[in-house]
Amino acid sequence: MSDFNLHKFFNKKYYNQAIREDWDKLSTPELADYSEDIIDLISTAYSYLPGGHSNYSNDKDVYKEAGRGAEYEVTDLDADGEIDAVSVSKKKPSGEKFVATGHDGSSPAKRAVITHKIDRLKQPGYYVEVSGKIKDILLKAGVPQVTDEATIERVLSGKDVTMNDDGSYVRSIGGTDHTKILLGRPLA
After folding, report:
1. Spatial distance between the Cα atoms of 74 and 80, rounded to a whole number of angstroms
2. What is the pLDDT of residues 29-74, one digit of tens each?
């Protein structure tokens, strides 16, 4: 009997046409096996920011954020046993808030994690704060923007928010002011 694996052969040969996009939520015990991979993926995704993601600088932060309610969904697009993308969210009173993204830098991984978020952000109970390029991508994909000041203030309860006329707002994150918009369909 040969060690030939038809699934791996098919994925390698037809990689762009046959990408596996199953997302698995990691349990707390599974974080021990994947925390270094998760931090690498998040670091790659936020490498354009000086200092990267403000809550993720090393693998211990994966556990720290899990203790604060972070949940990690991961996918292995090419069935090679390595995580290619991660989506991090936290349950809040207004629904599930996406708080971080990670990918291996490849186009398929970027596309998979963005598509994953788009699909959920169009459903009730999912939302995200965004700016920059990802804001433009999500808006172009039809993800609804929340512009109602009362809704934004309720969803971001406890955060100091200064509203702009266009529905965006400014708030301090890690001691620096950022202009953001709220996208998705948070619960009322």
Report:
1. 13
2. 999 899 999 999 999 999 988 888 889 999 999 999 999 999 999 9
pLDDT above 90 covers a percentage of the chain that reads 75
Between CA 89 and CA 178 the distance in angstroms is 20
Domain 1-121 belongs to what topology?
Aminopeptidase (3.40.630)
Strand boundaries in 39-137, DSSP class E: 70-75, 85-92, 95-103, 126-130
Phi-psi region of 102 (alpha: psi -120 to 50; beta: other; left: phi over 0): beta
| Domain boundary assignment for the chain | 1-121, 127-188
172 with 158: CB under 8 angstroms? no
Query: What b/e string do you get for 130-167 counting C-beta neighbours within 10 Å, with b at 16 or more?
Result: beeeebeebeeeebeebbeeeebeebbeeeebeeeeee
* Tokens describing residue 77: 């697009």
Number of neighbouring beta carbons within 10 Å of residue 51: 9
Tokens found for residue 137? 């991508």
* Residues 15 and 43: beta-carbon distance below 8 Å: no
Separation between Cα atoms, residue 151 and residue 161, nearest integer Å: 12
In angstroms, rounded to a whole number, what is the distance separating the alpha carbons of residues 185 and 172? 23
In this structure, which amino acid lies at residue 11? Answer: N
Is a pLDDT exceeding 90 seen at residue 79? no
Q: How far apart are CA 160 and CA 99, in angstroms?
A: 18
